[in-house]
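Re: the pair you flagged

First of the two:
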Amino acid sequence: DLAACLIQPTTLNHRLSTPNKLFEAIAAGVPLLAADLPAIAEIVRRWEVGWLVDPTDIDAIRHGLRSLIDQPELRAAMAERARIAAATELNWAHEFAALADLYDRVGGS
């Protein structure tokens, strides 16, 4: 199994955002073939959960896909790191705690 998160850099929002698909794949413990865009790349590199490609280059996508398909051990390691990322940090409970802390600091509570 693997997921593709190949958002096209057609707008500033697309270039700088982190799509839900990225977090859904990580939560599912599935390695990613992902767009090498700033916000996506930061997460994929930090957690080593996928292969980054230029989403506008069909040959790069083909190569990345083939590389992941041909390396089941690599996919398994990425999947394990995705499960760890989801369990420890990339989940709603962790994000809620950070958001609640921010609200407390801004609201002075």
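Second of the two:
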Amino acid sequence: MALVVADRLQETTTTTGTGTYTLAGAKSGFSSFSSIGDGNTTYYACSDGTDFEVGIGTYTASGTTLARTTILTSSNSNNAVNWGAGEKDIFVTLPSAKTVLEDASNNVTTGGTINGRNLSTDGSKLDGIEASATADQTAAEIRTLVESATDSNVFTDADHTKLNGIETSATADQTDAEIKTAYENNADTNAFTDALQTKLNGIETSATADQTDAEIKTAYENNSDTNAFTDALQTKLNGVAASANAYVHPNHSGEVTSTADGATVIADDVVDEANLKVSNTPTDGYFLSAQSGNTGGLTWASPPAGYADSDVDTHLNQSSASSGQYLQWNGSDYAWAAVSSVGGATGVDFNDNVKARFGTGNDLEIYHDGTDAYIASAASNIKYGGSGAGANVNHIFYSNGYQRCQVDRYGVDVTGNMYASGSGSFGSSSSGGYRLYVNGDSRFTSSMQCDYNITSNNTMYCNQINVAGTTYYGGGYYLSYSDDILKQRIANIPEALSKISQLNGFHYTDSDTVTDLIRGTNPDGTVNLVEKETAQKVGVSAQELEKVLPEAVGKTLSKQSATETEYLTVDYQRIVPLLIEGIKELKTKVETLETENTAIKARLDALEA
């Protein structure tokens, strides 16, 4: 670490408190403190225009900081200034206390070792004296210096000691052989001679002279070339019976087989009567009976007496049976038992295509064919519920986890789409009733005719009609209620013009997706053939309209399965209120502009006059 002073080094700092300065960069026209060098010290001065501080600082390149190493002078009684917020100037300086000046008498006074000396005269004398030279060296010190000099060739104490250790008439020209002979002939040297070398060569590596019996035995048995009689061989020998030979069992084939010392196996159906050990002579009609007390374990015996019909009747105990019972084994004998009722906790299981039949002529069948389930009747109608007063129960039908239809005493509620093919009708076929029927097939493009209004108290009502294609009205117009009595007003539509500006009116034609929706699929899986409409239409984007007027945007019918897609719809008549408010806003703007234009025109006329 060195003390470095450089010219034109000045930076700013916003450091607060009494800690290390963080340097914020060089001021215009000056250089940064990086010229001081990492780890070096310098003289610095810092001021905010009111307070000041002069001292010695240590510069650190990492983080560009200057530590307050020593405070020389400051506005805080020569202590570190406790800086407040704001920018301060900090720069390299040369403090007056650290400046060496020549006075009027050409003398220089310093705070160190130079004090009024004649540097010209004293300097010449000083140049002739070596560094660290003294005038009071003792003889011992001088001797030490002489002996330490490598070029003095002096006879030192060490040389004297070495000379004392050399015998009289000693020479320095002995050969290796002479030295070896003299060494080996010395009885007190314990010399390592050639004879000892030969003896050592005859001893194996790692050989010891203190091996125990167990160690010698282990080494002996582990030697693969010794044919040693080991403990393992001793154990094997103990397991061989006296007079045992080396007989090897042969292999046998045929009706009786064996392999080496393995088990002997007799093939099936090869042991005849002559080979059986039976204790007596057979008699025709006898059977072999196990007799553990006889030689061979088998004996020929006569069969036990058979049962007569009367014995069977007695054993079955017919008198205890009731009509409809069945014979059941109870663990020790047969006994009559009642047939358990079917179902309950155990249920009744039928395999595929096994039918549960009902009726005298098997008129109703319920079964599963492995793919579909059937409730079939070939002779009569199938009725659900009943026509009695106590039959007011609901019948709910599900498909794919969704409720599709509910039948109750009020009618039929259908969730989802209803398809009709061919000519069909719903309702009465008489001239006084109402009918809704489709001519042709179930396509939406087929005509739908309503001969009579759907009315209640002579008023026509319709909750909702969902049509994927074009709807035609031949009898006039349809209305939606708008009486103030039926409404609770909230507020007029705000910023109508801004919302209208976000909409686009455009020409378009139907996409293939619309064609697919109109086409539809029949219940039998066939697809209705409908040509794509190519006529140009006008409209707006439901997505754009939903952002500014969501009340005019709806969705298609509720999704009936996870795979169906919902599409947005637009109620164009609900856009009318937005247009009305937009026209009103536009009218207000136009009237304002007309008023301003009239005022401007009046001013121009006044200026021209």
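Residues 428-470, 472-477 have pLDDT under 50 and may be disordered.

-B.
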